[in-house]
Design brief:
This protein is α/β, with parallel strands linked by helices. It has helices at 56-69, 72-88, 113-125, 157-171, 190-203, 215-225, 229-235, 253-261, 270-276, 283-288, 305-320, 333-341, 343-349, 365-368, 372-382, 409-423; strands at 2-4, 10-11, 19-23, 25-30, 91-98, 128-135, 177-182, 207-211, 243-247, 265-268, 293-295, 358-362, 388-393, 396-400, 403-404. The chain binds zinc ion. Zinc ion is lined by residues 29, 31, 97, 210, 246, 298.
């Protein structure tokens, strides 16, 4: 076994072996129920809006159809499926960006049942969960909630924060922790953002925000506030060392400085960003400013930590027409990627480092030939989550020989299958 540390360095006996052991990966951005969309949104939908070309907004209308229909039991089934796949892919922890707060038809629950379903799903498969209770208040600037969005929203910010407290009481006994999120500057008015930022700061909770994913969001924000989203978030005191901006695709040079100066993190979700046609984040400008960057699998079209990390570097190569863009002089690819897949994700979710969180991969042939550094980089260039052999979470076996051992894989699949049949 060759052990690799959180910096991506092979440590201890590096003479070779058949196994590479890394710290467990952190999936900092997930919408578990969106797993049900995989393979169902890769076609052009009729004429009308889609005639101009399919994009994020047409994808969102299909996503909303599911969001309007899924029950508590469906969300449990989809989350257990997604979380099981995460463990098999080497993720040991997940940040669930959760906004499906009410029952079908936007009927309020007596207690936060969806939060409980997500916490149960995580506990049943053995992944660490940070439940990011997400605020959603409106359809956009001067735009009321649509019917589908009413499931996401509370009457006001006090009702939302009371929900966060109730959720905490319910899910913490199951081992989950709770943070907060502002869905976006589009979905929350300024007073919401300010209150939730203050709440997160006072409670020392992680605060996550979708930011600058789509050009339309920037246009709307400039129209409403006279500035782009990152500048607005800075004015709302929503940036800081507990804050993570998710996507940061269409940021400007001034934004990089705002993010750097406030010690804010950025979470990129490359497989989802390319699937949705979001655009490319200028990641090297963030990396040069030493901004902490972590990863997430977001809509879960693909759940693969290796691919997500590789894509940080490879998307930037395509954007800049250069190679080894994130790789510092005299270092290697794995050293640029491993900290972003592990350490930065823990910082984003305010999780403690845990030496019991480990993932073992089959050693690529280059490593078995004696060049361990090439073997490790070969994993990131050419490998995938399918090369995962064993995973432990907090020292407990969760995956052995590629199979989940904490729950019945067949049962997880059958349950997800029943949900997919109904959503078809
Ligand atoms: Zn998202």
């Amino acid at each position: 076994v060759v052990v690799v540390d959180v910096q991506g360095n092979a440590v201890g006996d590096t003479s070779g072996g058949d196994v590479l052991e890394l710290p467990g990966f952190v999936n900092a951005h997930s919408h578990a129920f969106q797993r049900a969309l995989r393979g169902r949104v890769e076609h052009r939908i009729g004429a009308g809006a889609a005639a101009a070309g399919d994009d994020f907004w047409s994808w969102r209308s299909t996503m909303y159809q599911d969001a309007a229909r899924v029950t508590v039991d469906d969300v449990y089934a989809l989350a257990r499926w997604a979380y099981a796949d995460m463990l098999r892919a080497g993720f040991v922890a997940v940040g669930e960006f959760h906004y499906l707060h009410h029952d079908v038809g936007a009927k309020p629950f007596a207690s936060p049942e969806m939060s409980l379903a997500l916490a149960r799903a995580a506990k049943d498969v053995g992944i660490k969960l940070v439940l990011l209770e997400t605020a959603y208040a409106r359809g956009g600037a001067n735009k009321p909630l649509s019917d589908e969005q009413r499931r996401f929203a509370f009457a006001d910010v006090d009702a939302f924060l009371a929900h966060v407290e109730r959720s905490k009481k319910l899910v913490e006994p199951l081992g989950a922790s709770v943070g907060v999120a502002v869905h976006s500057v589009r979905a929350c008015p300024r007073p919401f953002i300010e209150r939730i930022a203050t709440f997160a700061r006072e409670k020392n909770m992680p605060l996550h925000i979708h930011a600058c994913e789509q050009q339309k969001e920037l246009e709307e924000c400039r129209w409403e506030h006279g500035m782009a989203p990152v500048a607005l978030l800075a004015e709302c005191k929503a940036l800081g060392h507990n804050t993570t901006l998710v996507h940061a695709t269409h940021i400007e040079p001034d934004d990089v400085e705002r993010i750097r100066a406030s010690s804010t993190l950025v979470c990129l979700t490359p497989s989802t960003e390319r699937n949705l046609g979001d655009g490319l984040c200028p990641i090297s400008s963030l990396a040069k400013a030493w901004v902490r960057i972590c990863i997430g699998t977001d809509s879960h079209a693909r759940i693969d930590a290796v691919d997500e990390l590789r894509s940080l570097e490879e998307h930037e190569r395509l954007r800049t027409e250069k190679r080894n863009v994130l790789v510092l002089p005299n270092t290697r690819l794995a050293q640029a990627l491993v900290p972003r897949g592990t350490w930065a994700g823990m910082q984003s979710l305010l999780l403690r480092a845990d030496t019991g969180d480990r993932v073992r991969f089959a050693m690529p042939i280059e490593g078995r030939a004696g060049d361990v550094a090439a073997g490790l980089d070969a994993l990131f260039v050419g490998g995938s989550s399918k090369d995962v052999v064993d995973v432990t979470v907090a020292g407990k076996d969760v995956v052995k020989a590629g199979k989940l051992v904490t729950a019945d894989e067949r049962d997880i699949e059958d349950h997800a299958l029943a949900v997919l049949k109904r959503l078809r």
